[in-house]
Amino acid sequence: MNNNISTAHINPLENESIYIFREVAAQFEKPVLLFSGGKDSITLVRLAQKAFYPAKIPFPLMHIDTGHNFPETIEFRDKLVKELGLELIVRNVQDSIDAGKVKEESGKYSSRNSLQTTTLLDAIEEFKFDACIGGARRDEEKARAKERIFSVRDDFGQWDEKNQRPELFDMLNGQIELGQNVRVFPISNWTELDVWSYIEKENIEIPSIYFAHKRKVFLRDGLIWSHSEYVYQEEDEQVEELMVRFRTVGDMSCTAAVLSDAVDISTVVQEIRDSSISERGARIDDKRSEAAMEKRKQQGYF
Amino acid sequence: MEVLKIATAGSVDDGKSTLIGRILYDTKSLTTDKLEAIEKTSKQKGYDYLDFSLATDGLVAEREQGITIDVAHIYFSTATKSYIIADTPGHVEYTRNMVTGASTSQAAIILIDARKGVIEQTNRHFFINNLLRIKTVIVAVNKMDLVNYSEERYNEIKADFEALMSKRDYQDQKIVFVPVSALKGDNVVNKTKEMPWYSGQPLLEYLEAIQQKDIFNIGTPRFPIQYVVRPKTDDFHDFRGYAGKVYGGELNVGDDVVVLPSQTKSKIKDIYFYNQKYQTASRRSSVTITLEDDINVSRGDMIVRDGDLPTIDKQFTATICWMDASQLTSGGKYVVQHGINKVLAKVDAIHHKINPDYSGIDSDVSELKVNDIASVTFKLNKPIFHDAFKNHRTNGSFILIDTQTNNTVGAGFIQ
User: Fold this and answer.
1) Taking CB atoms and an 8 Å cutoff, what residues of chain B touch A176?
2) Gap between the Cα atoms of B393 and B135, Å rounded
3) A20: nearest Cα among B99, B83, B340
4) Which of B282, B234, B245 lies closest to A51, judged by CA?
């Protein structure tokens, strides 16, 4: 038996997150964990396992699939779900496009990232989810920095940034009306480095694209884009093979790679520690305007 | 690594966001792309300096108006600590957000504009930090560059603030004063040459020196049960674990405990954290406890040490901070969320309003408006197990929820 479980040994952030997971399971009827196969949602799964051990995670995972994912991520997702015996719900952005609910963007900067919102809101309505757990962190982006841990969304999934519920002490108020839902962010207070350090400490498996590998890419606007059928490419944009990895994993059309030699978790952690560029510096979707994230959130983006 | 949560307080334009931006800049916590964005926007606005508030004011409305509306959480770390700063709004109408930011913080920075000195808002900020029993308060006298780095002016402000300190109710606070210029970077992270008369340290060094004993009174162990874990699998068929977070001291395997409200006695059998067993669960750890006896325990119940019971009562008197546009009136019904426990409560009496500018109390009050602070007695539909806030931060605090809108409309501190 171990001697002492204390916050001096275990990251206090981990204890805070476990507490939040238990509040979700207790306060809501139909929670769901939004799972993209990225490092943050993988960390959420581990924290949820810890919160309910020895019982299984008492809610399903849901992936809003843009159809433009890195194949490595999908492979990883299916393996993880199988190993842990979890339920996975997948809803496809392609279906929303086919139904004429959203219009595919075209041209040089086209991306399916913002189209996810409609598919997500439809899925919430379909399953009557009242709490959607997400891996967003406040250090990612300045609009995220303003968001509560329990963030109430109205009937339309919208965030009213100027009228948020005060969140005091540890007390999380999850009381909502029918039709509303709460977006829950258990790792709000974690930084990117915290997540990577935790993955290292816990020895958590992550998709291979987070480690340096040779990939066909092209350069645009100082960013490294993946060469793929899903990513629009001008004729004069030259494809080359470079040693890269991904710091953040979203849709292929909005996630840029970084040059890297980090082939294992400890070199990745060191690289993040030394980096002078923020994680979202490689998110093409955030560069659209000063308020890109805030606007997407107002519309129901997670 | 230790995590320290800090709240900032100051009036509009006292430079809170600038101070935080300066800390980030001088500790090299701003990444190149964020710094470039600040440079670009500062230039667009026609400033000849870097507007660091752009790093923290995350909402469009905030950038438009140049003020902070809601709490932003900012992260940075040094070699010794990880910091979370709650950048709270200074505007009078956003006092509720200030209480929100301060409630989760372990230390506070109060900003004063050296030109304006101690103003009514300063009283309010200090009062709230005092009400929340924040042990370490750093008073940053900002914009020293605009008063020619005058020692005389600084001493004047310090004396005014010390006069306030004599009026406070909670005396056990460690208060330090630092003259700074957030804009120029004087005495924030690096010591300045501009104020040779100042013998103290730069602001960040005071934060670095904060130790656990400077944070809160720890209090005795309280274990509210959040969730009952019943796996019903082959391996854990009869497992019945009580998941929760330890508040106050610590719990040990073998401790004689009492389960509230039934007051059934038992012993702690095992303490789990994930798939490991531990001998001791320290405060703030989210563990799962099993008991020697098979007793009926559910969410909202509380495990405490035998002989160390909280007050079990269907009524209590508390200082509350009212946060909603609606009014609190005598006879009004609300949900009291005390930790994770929710009970229905009726306002039995509003005793008096406390003026947060230290000008005394107003008796004969029949209703409370937004940002009012008052002493109120509540009657509950079932008992809760509480301590006084001064003895136990978590078990002595609660929130009020409006039964119609479900909004959090008040915060309370049990007397």
Assistant:
1) 406
2) 12
3) B340
4) B245
- Chain B (160-179) residues lying within 8 Å, Cβ to Cβ, of chain A: none
Q: Which of B87, B85, B86, B105 is nearest to B29 (CA)?
A: B85
Q: Which of the four pLDDT bands, split at 50, 70 and 90, describes residue B134?
A: very high
Is the Cβ pair A142, B275 closer than 8 Å?
Answer: no
Per-residue pLDDT of chain A (302 residues; tens, 9 = 90+): 566 555 444 588 999 999 999 999 999 999 999 999 999 999 999 999 999 999 999 999 999 998 888 889 999 999 999 999 999 999 999 999 999 898 888 877 777 878 888 999 999 999 999 999 999 998 887 778 888 999 998 878 788 877 788 899 999 999 999 889 999 999 999 988 899 999 999 999 999 999 999 999 999 888 898 888 888 888 888 999 999 999 888 778 788 899 999 999 999 999 888 877 777 665 655 555 556 667 766 766 66
Dihedral sign computed on CA atoms, order B341, B342, B345, B351 = positive
Q: Which of B181, B14, B31 is nearest to B112 (CA)?
A: B14
Q: Verify whether the Cβ–Cβ distance A50 to B273 is below 8 Å.
A: yes
| Interface pTM, i.e. ipTM | 0.93
Q: Do A177 and B406 touch (CB under 8 A)?
A: yes
C-alpha A100/C-alpha B329 separation (Å) is 51
B152's enclosing H/E stretch is helix B151-165
Tens of pLDDT along B192-206? 999 999 999 999 999
Q: Is A178 on the interface with B (CB under 8 A)?
A: no
Residues 6 or more apart in contact with residue A4 via CB below 8 angstroms: B278, B279, B280, B282
Is the pTM above the cut of 0.80?
Answer: yes
The DSSP call for residue B37 is: H
Chain B residues close to A56, C-beta within 8 Å: 231
- Do the beta carbons of residue A72 and residue A42 sit within 8 Å? no
Cα A144 to Cα A17, A137, A296, A302, B35, distances in angstroms? 17, 7, 11, 10, 18
Please measure the distance between the N-terminal and C-terminal CA atoms of chain A and give it in whole angstroms. 41
pLDDT one-digit tens code per residue, B74-120: 888 888 888 999 887 766 566 777 788 889 899 999 999 999 999 98
CB B380 within 8 A of CB B315: yes
Task: Give yes or no for a contact between B410 and B263, defined as CB atoms under 8 angstroms apart.
Answer: no
> Using the beta-carbon criterion (under 8 Å), do B337 and A173 form an inter-chain contact?
yes
Q: Return the pLDDT at A4.
A: 59
Give the span between the Cα atoms of B185 and B203, in whole angstroms.
11
B166 to chain A nearest CA, in Å?
A: 28
* Chain-chain contact of B58 with A144 (C-beta, under 8 angstroms): yes
Q: How far separated are the first and last CA of chain B, in Å rounded?
A: 34
How close does chain A come to B151, measured CA to CA in Å? 37
Kindly give, in sequence order, each residue whose CB lies less than 8 Å from that of residue B104, ignoring residues fewer than 6 positions away: A167, A168, A169, A170, B5, B7, B86
- DSSP helix/strand/coil, B227: strand
Strands A150-153 and A131-133: unpaired
